[in-house]
Amino acid sequence: MGEQVAGQPVRMTAELQLAGELNRLSQLMTRPFLRLHSEKHAISLAEWRALVQIVAAPGITATEICSRTGLTAMNVSRAVQLLRAAGRVTGERDTQDSRRNLLTATPQGRTLFDELAPSAERDIREILSVLNTDELAFFTALVTRVAAHADRTQDP
């Protein structure tokens, strides 16, 4: 980037523009969920993201949820605490490692997931409908590859 002159905009690099667009896309993908479900069902976006992972992988740990979602440990801990308080998930100590708490959706948590997931999927599908099947597969592969690289190269 060039030197900034007071009051003059600086040309944004492609990397910063891409990071901004990915963040915006993430926000746009979650906006319908927040508008339609968050208040009605008393569930935050972090809780929803944690619940999705717990339903997808019963017995998952909070650390694994952090890894799969990119949420911070503090946000996942709070989300799991709220989900447990609401009776949506349970946790039990791992018999092989007592430091690990294995999380599972309760029937109430699974029912909520089953109720909300079709709407969330439909909203995301609508946003991605601008891509044909091959483009969507390619886009998914690229994002997955870049995310995996970021996981390997970021500090823990």
UniProtKB/TrEMBL annotation:
Residues 15-148 form the HTH marR-type domain. InterPro entries: HTH_MarR-typ (IPR000835), MarR/SlyA-like (IPR039422), WH-like_DNA-bd_sf (IPR036388), WH_DNA-bd_sf (IPR036390). This is MarR family winged helix-turn-helix transcriptional regulator. The lineage of its organism: Bacteria, Bacillati, Actinomycetota, Actinomycetes, Micrococcales.
